[in-house]
Amino acid sequence: MTADPARRNERSRRAILTAALDLLGETGYADLTIEAIAARAGVGKQTIYRWWRKKGAIILEALVDAMAAAEAVALPDTGDLAADLRTVMRATVAEFADPKLSATTRAITIETLGDESLGVQVRDQLLRPQLDAVKDRLRAGRDAGQVRDGVDLDQAVELLFGPLYHRWLLRTGPLTDDYADGIVELAVAAIRPDRK
Amino acid sequence: MTADPARRNERSRRAILTAALDLLGETGYADLTIEAIAARAGVGKQTIYRWWRKKGAIILEALVDAMAAAEAVALPDTGDLAADLRTVMRATVAEFADPKLSATTRAITIETLGDESLGVQVRDQLLRPQLDAVKDRLRAGRDAGQVRDGVDLDQAVELLFGPLYHRWLLRTGPLTDDYADGIVELAVAAIRPDRK
Hints:
By secondary structure, chain A is mainly alpha-helical. The first copy, chain A, has helices spanning about 10-25, 35-40, 45-50, 55-70, 80-95, 100-115, 115-145, 155-170, 175-190. The radius of gyration of chain A is 20 Å and the shape is elongated.
């Protein structure tokens, strides 16, 4: 019996994904090449091209893998909704403000805008777990009487991440802790129960 | 004296921009070619390449020109802030929901993500006038006591357009009148004065 050449070798796959993320951190996305990934992983370029069409797809799979290996995404629940949202928004704003992380996210965004199936993959595998974690925290807040009944929780999540995404993509303003706190203050005001 | 060959001929420039926008409407951005624009405008391809590097830059200049020719952007002011914001958000959501307009905006977004100087141009010439018009309407609302003192008006604008942008880019939900109204309801709740 001969091995199926199309079947992925798990050890090579992991070596390639690890090499890709390491190199990404060292050189940034723009200078990342398939050649360099192959050399670092100790595989041939053809091995990589057999499994992925381009570097955006490799990085995406590496990030999805890293995410799956991490603890399940969950927000802190200290009972103070605004404080917990500030924690997650400050961390997220800091990621977008980091030049290296930002360059990677920008590169992935370009790829996904031009390729709808990749866009769906990024949305469902990378983004959705993070958005759902925030939605879960908002639902717990609603159960605790801190969120108005009838608020659409998907829209409430967008109220937090939409402004950040807009500002980051369009480069319309600074990305700071103050900014993160400002978004949370407005979002919490938008969803809180009507006062009697 | 010889004419400066680098100096743009205004009649040719206008013919090219008009041809570009007409063809964009007919074929969509993906199938738009420099060849087709040149043929429609009655100029040589080289004339176009002398002035613009790629089709994204032509479309951007055409849109900026069209915007400058239009009436100054201003929102309605009926005295009812929520109603006026619903008008503008419904119109904006409809633009993003339109497949042809959406494809153009998506293409321009890809270009601007990959080219920071083009990004700054789009932000300042195309986007800023629209965001400022909404900011002016919010300022009028604040003067009329419908917006809390101390609300950052730039953040309030992002509270309206950020969620839409997020949903459109990431394809996370439907773009409907109900959605537009939902955003406005949340944003207005976020910025209204504290009740006594």
